[in-house]
Design a protein that fits this description.
The protein has 283 residues and is an alpha/beta fold. The protein has two domains: 5-178, Rossmann fold, CATH 3.40.50.620; 191-278, 2-Layer Sandwich (Pantoate--beta-alanine Ligase, Chain: A,domain 2). The protein is built from ten helices and nine strands. The strands form two sheets. It has a six-stranded parallel beta sheet, sandwiched between helices. It has a three-stranded antiparallel beta sheet with strand order 7-8-9. Helix 6 (129-144) packs across helix 7 and helix 9 (206-216) runs antiparallel to helix 10 (222-235). It starts with a strand and ends with a strand. The model has no long low-confidence stretch (mean pLDDT 96).
């Protein structure tokens, strides 16, 4: 098992990738905030299938955290992250400091407006979140210049917006979404699951059950699917619901029939959790 090359600066990253670019190797990027887990391992595996060179970025991006959110306590474990990358055959780990990404300081330069769909759902609860996400992703795309970028479907709204970012800015990058990886109890794996105590973990498992309940009603339409998911969430007193929504595949109004998405967001104690599932309405 070869250890990936760990680079910390933009100059070192460019020098590292120059040789690969010279022989026109395909490059896949997996952007992360670290605290890597089985979900990230699956993203890396898919990236390995897609490209000759796999780059994993590890950067806890301050501009996607709002006031009072968990920036300071977000888990940071670089040594363990590099070990997971090594096990997955990653070639380069790019772990810059804040100055490397924001030379003038976070929030002081040009940022990306996520548009109307960035102000729905997660954007309504976290108004600055997607501007921060799209800005840092654009910077990483510019620095790494990948042909493929790999993201998880667990953050479904993020995936839709990044796909749109690449399309609308005419970036020569294929954005690949990878299905959510789940634990045995159905909970979507997430770095924030580490915040849950035993009782919180038990309560959080209701999210996946709510999605299954929604899917069981998908033939009855969007309203029925959303109501079934909400009813199950409401039975768990330890869970505070932020939203339960059914949209089309790209966050527009849900169709009467056809492909759609069921998205939920909750808090379990102080921990915010999101999840989603595909629907096939009507039929």
């Amino acid at each position: 098992m070869m250890r990936p090359l760990l680079v910390r600066t933009r100059l070192d990253l460019d020098a590292t990738l120059a040789a690969h670019r010279a022989v026109q190797s395909t490059v896949a990027l997996v952007p992360t905030m670290g605290a890597l887990h089985a979900g990230h391992a699956e993203l890396i595996r898919r990236a390995r299938d897609e490209a000759a060179v796999v780059v994993v970025s590890i950067f806890v991006n301050p501009t996607q955290f709002g006031l009072g959110e968990d920036l300071d306590r977000y888990p940071r474990q670089l040594a363990a992250d590099v070990a997971l990358c090594a096990a997955g055959g990653v070639d380069v780990v790019f772990a810059p400091d804040v100055h490397a990404i924001y030379p003038e300081g976070p929030g002081r330069g040009i940022s990306i407006d996520p548009g109307p769909d960035g102000r729905l759902l997660e954007g309504a609860s976290r108004p600055t979140h997607f501007a921060g996400v799209l800005t840092v992703v654009t910077k990483l795309f510019a620095l790494v210049r990948p042909q493929v970028a790999v993201f998880g479907e667990k953050d479904y709204q993020q995936l839709v917006l990044i796909t749109r970012l690449a399309r609308d800015l005419c970036l020569p990058i294929r954005v690949l979404g990878v299905p959510t990886v789940r634990a045995e109890d159905g909970l979507a794996v997430s770095s924030r699951n580490a915040y849950l105590d035993a009782d919180g973990r038990t309560a959080a498992a209701v999210l996946s059950r709510a999605l299954v309940a929604g899917q069981a009603q998908q033939r009855a339409g969007a309203d029925a699917a959303g109501a079934a998911a909400r009813q199950l969430l409401e039975r768990e007193t330890a869970v505070d619901i932020d939203y339960v929504a059914v949209t089309d595949r790209v966050l527009g109004p849900a169709p009467q029939t056809g492909e759609a998405r069921l998205l939920v967001a909750t808090r379990v104690g102080a921990t915010r959790l999101i999840d989603n599932a595909a629907l096939s309405l009507g039929g």
